Amino acid sequence: MAHPRASTQSQRFAQFKLVLLGESAVGKSSLVLRFVKDQFDDYRESTIGAAFLTQTIALDETTTIKFEIWDTAGQERYKSLAPMYYRNANCAVVVYDITQASSLDKAKAWVKELQRQANENIVIALAGNKLDLASDPSKRAVETAEAEAYAREAGLLFFETSAKTAENVKELFTAIAKKLPLDQQGPRGGRAGGAGGRGVDLKGGSAAQQQGCNC
User: Which regions are flagged for Gly residues bias (predicted)?
Assistant: First the structure.
């Protein structure tokens, strides 16, 4: 009996630590829920501290990315905990609400903090959430061009998203995955979120197969 031919293409599987930041009620948890479970809940309670979830993305036939996601609480009383979650993160999504101008100011403050204190190679995406509400022009408080210009100046990825309708949610996380340094993955990088900010080859030794985040 003939054996099936082994694939000549090497499979790459890397994991990265991702953190979500932003003001309370901008929809961070809803974005994660849509991305991870393809669900939306109109009545989600506020996150306490942070929530941890995982999701994988197949970039192509040979490359799979696993995100270890920390969804942080937006309330001011939890702000001091944020560095514990974004420390050594490989990527971050900073979320604002397109119907609340003040939430973009808060997002800009988070971006500055990340650029000053997080991993120097961190990939940052700015997400203007609640795009579904833009069907009523009177509700939009942050124009796309304004946020896009800021993102370009700050070197950020930029998407307007709707956790409710799923618009641009998968595209947001896929764009982040494509920006991550897959060519630097390997045992020397330690776990995702390690000092080198590299991905992890999960097919390597046992040390490379550890789960969880280095927070």
Answer: 187-199
In CATH, which superfamily holds the domain spanning 13-196?
P-loop containing nucleotide triphosphate hydrolases (3.40.50.300)
CA separation for the pair 205, 187 (Å, rounded) = 8
Predicted pLDDT of residue 136:
93
What is the residue whose two structure tokens read 């799923």? 166
Position 56 pLDDT exceeds 50: yes
Class of residue 154 by CB neighbours under 10 A (exposed 0-12, middle 13-18, buried 19+): middle
**pLDDT over threshold 80, residue 184:** no
Rounded to 5°, angle at Cα 15 from 72 and 6: 155
Which of the pair, 94 or 82, is modelled with greater confidence?
94
Whether the CB-CB separation of 32 and 92 falls below 8 Å is answered with: no
In the numeric block, the tokens 């609480």 are attached to 73
For residue 12, give both structure tokens. 């790459």
